[in-house]
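Table 4 source record.
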Amino acid sequence: MTGDGESRISLHDLQIAFEREVTADKRAAAETAYALAFRYRNQDVDGRRRFDLAKQWARRAIKLLDELPSDRLDQIATTRASVGGVDLPGLLHAGVVRERLADVLF
């Protein structure tokens, strides 16, 4: 996780951002979905971890990333260092999501 200010972004606000991004910038939407999956996996929501929602967001990220070109490094490079307090890997493709969120995908 990164700075306090960014980690205070609510899950609801991240979901709103995702809905806006999914039509305008699929790579940004995939990054946000990845961050939502991490947050739902790693943070208590109403007193418990929401692995079910983490799985849904991880699958959304994978679906979006599978639809994007990935032949060159610049096509899989993240556009932001972090989203909603979650540090993003420098390169983000479906395989990275599957590896880093394997525990919620199976």
